[in-house]
Structures are given as structure tokens and as C-alpha cells.
């Protein structure tokens, strides 16, 4: 193309970063461009909640009008701000790579309580205008209050600095793009598997006129086809629910080992407990329809559920099932007992890492009141163990989020290779992760508790059986109990699944993550 391409952009720092990012991409393929700043309705209404603005074109309409009138050639949008259908005469010609869709929780340092999930003080005030974020955050921290938060990224951070909130939630991508220094705050990352992002979060959309064939063809050089395929699932779910970003809907799709993995979180409003679903498929075709069908179908065939763990009234898992009126039978089939009262603290001077594969390991290790050197890092298996660690005012340096110990070991290995790792664990532990990391680390096993089977373990007739450890499977099935053909089974991780297979049961579901969120997603998928 010989002419200079005119790029339309909003005037915020982040929007201009995005426009300049695209400008640099165009220059790399030999296309000259310039940026024209255009003000949108969303830039004018600073006092309205995003629930009244997002997803309705408030941040995009003026850019699209300029395109249609021929005043600009290309509009750069945050893809999540776009309505699901382009106006007649316009098309999304290309999408960018996807920035990290993680959310950042930015907390004033004097409002931090490490013992609580997300580390915000009890009854804290969190700034966000996203109903999606409110619903998901509230489901994990029901004590939190929310206040509306508007303005560009630096303005929002300044409002936190001024003390208007105890914490705020921002997209990590925006903070990274602007290279903002957050060292004065306590910052925690919320993984997209834990807080499901908005459809197409972290992706730029390059929009032009449908008849600008020369530019459309040129843009294919910088078009990311894989991102386009995954966010098409997310955007189609949004479109089929007929909602904009005001809907408390999160959809996140990624491609892993040739399969599409999709997390969905949907609520009716910001105070409704979100229904969470995880699906895996070899193809993206029909995946959005499958998700929406599951949310809209009648769920009256499952009446009861058994879980091999006592649940508190505040349990995320229990609360996630309340709206379905299930009869929940929660009872552990094992009891745990500490087996040591002290250990040689010199061990801790020799180790680089401590790794816990269960909440029981965390509890029984810290009961010993260990003095851990500051240089020693801590890893845990699952967010349940991570939250147990918080009770001792400790933060995990590594959280294994997969239900497959092989995936966890693969993620952990680069951090611990050729180092010494202490494993506080159960007596007669399966040592699954040590086996996976054999010859790559120096491991020290420290049995701190043992499990004992309950004397009486009755057969459960529940429609769904949820087993939370290999020990619970062993206790249930070695006691002359059986799993009936009509019972659906969830095993919290691969080790638990392997134990089921030892007893001849191969038809079970493993949640993506070995925690109550993962269990909720797995059970919801069976309703």
C-alpha cells in the first residue's frame, strides 16, 4: 500500500499505547501509518458505572462512525469493549496476540491481611465497576464491599493511593503495557482459572471497512489466527447469551496440547453466586453452543451428592450448589493424627523449598512451629493448600493448579531443579510428585501425620460421589461398598483417580484444579 494508513484511537494512555503498538506492527511489514485521536461517549460519562457502559459501544461507536465516513482507515479497540456484532460495512480484519488475561488485586499495604484469601482486610472496600469481577470475588470473599471505580488506569491507581478504597482490581495487561510501578502497594495476581476474565480480555481488535480489501489482505500478516480461534468461542458465548460486559459473564478459552479448554462463570447479577463450568474439547466447533446449552437446560435429574470431606457452611463448594437444592452428604472417611511433636530444625537450613501436597500437610507441619529461613520458598498443591497456608500468615511462592500431578511437576521443575526440597506429608504417602521429579531434585521426606480409616463407613446412594483423596477412596471401597452404575464420580486429582482404577472403576471426572472451585466446575458439568 502506498498511502499512509490513518489509525483511529481513544486518547487515554492505554489506548494510545495500543494504537502505537499496532503502528509499530504495521511499520514492521512496510506500512506507514499515523494516529488520529477520537473522543468517545465512554470518555465523557465518568460518573456512570461500567455496567451501564461496557458492551454497548460507548467506547467504540465514534471510532466506528469515523471509519464508515472514511475519516480513518483502521480503528484499534480493546476487543472486550466491542459489541459482538460489527455495524454493517465494518469488519474485524485482524486480532493481536493475547496479553496475560490475569487480574491484579492492588492493596494498600496497611490494609493487608495475609491470613485471608486475596489478602484484603476483613470487610474491606474494593474498587471495581465490573459486575463480572464483583460476582466472582464476592463468591470467594462474601465479607467484601464494592465501590464503583472509573477513569483511566493511572487515575484509578491514584484513587486507591488517595484512600478511596482498600484495594482495587485491574487487568494485568493494562498495567504491564503502561509499565506502572506498583511497589508502594501489596499486589496479588488472580489467575484466569480462578477469576474468569471477560471474553477477549487482553486482545486488540483491528477494525476497518469491509470493502477495504487491500488493507484487509495486508493485515493478515499480523493477524493471530490461534487467538482468533479461541476468542471466537468466548465471543460467541457472549453473543448467544445476548449480553454485553454488564452481564456478570466470564469466558476464557485456551488451547493446550491440541485441545480447547474453556472456563465459564455466569451470574444473573453482581450479588448472585456464579455458576462455573469447565469443558475440554478437541475442536472449537460447537463448543460455545455446548456451553450455553448446559447453562440453559433443566437441571432436575441430580438430587443428591456425597463428598468425602466435612464442609463448613461458608464453604465455596457448598454455597455453589445451594441454588440446585441438592441433598449434600459431607463426611470424611478418614481421620488424621499428628505423628511427631518435634523435628530437627537443622533440616530447614539445608533446604531450598518446602512443598505441601495437602492441607493436612500444611496444618501438621506448622503445628510444630517451625522457624523457616527467609530464603526458603514454599510450594503447594492446589488453592486449598494455599489458603490453609494463609492461616499461618504465609504466602505460597508456587501453586500447582492442575489436578494432574504430572502437570504440576512439569511447572514446578524449572524452579526447583538441582535444589533440595522438603516434603511434609502423610505417613506411607504415595510420594507422587517426588517420583515425577526423581533424579532432578534432592528430596527430603518428613512424615508429619497419618491417616486412619473410620470404623463405620456406610454405602452412599447419592447421585454424585466426590472423592477428595486416595485415602478416602481406599476407605470407602475396601469396606465392602460399591459404586453403582448410575452414580457419577468425581476424583479430585489423578492420584485419587488412580486409586479408583485399582478397584476397577474407570468412569470418573477429574476437575481441572484440585480445589473447591475445580470441584464445583466438575459437579456443575454433571448436573
Automatic annotation (TrEMBL):
What is the source species? Solitalea longa
Catalytic activity reported: 4 porphobilinogen + H2O = hydroxymethylbilane + 4 NH4(+)
In what residue span(s) does the Tetrapyrrole biosynthesis uroporphyrinogen III synthase domain sit?
332-518
A GO cellular component annotated for this chain's UniProt record is: cytoplasm
Q: What is this protein called?
A: Hydroxymethylbilane synthase
Under PANTHER family, the record lists: PORPHOBILINOGEN DEAMINASE
What InterPro entries does UniProt report for this protein, alphabetically? 4pyrrol_syn_uPrphyn_synt_sf (IPR036108), 4pyrrol_synth_uPrphyn_synth (IPR003754), HemC (IPR000860), Porphobilin_deaminase_N (IPR022417), Porphobilinogen_deaminase_C_sf (IPR036803)
How this chain assembles, per its entry, is: Monomer.
Keyword GTP-binding applies: no
The record's listing under Pfam families reads: HEM4, Porphobil_deam
Q: Which family does it belong to?
A: Belongs to the HMBS family.
GO BP field? heme biosynthetic process
- Cofactor(s) listed: dipyrromethane
**Associated pathway:** Porphyrin-containing compound metabolism; protoporphyrin-IX biosynthesis; coproporphyrinogen-III from 5-aminolevulinate: step 2/4
The record's function comment reads: Tetrapolymerization of the monopyrrole PBG into the hydroxymethylbilane pre-uroporphyrinogen in several discrete steps.
If you read the UniProt record, what top EC class would you report for this enzyme, in one word? transferase
* Protein origin, superkingdom: Bacteria
Q: What is its EC number?
A: 2.5.1.61
- Alphabetized UniProt keyword annotations: Porphyrin biosynthesis, Transferase
Where would I find the Porphobilinogen deaminase N-terminal domain in this sequence?
5-215
Molecular function GO terms recorded: hydroxymethylbilane synthase activity; uroporphyrinogen-III synthase activity
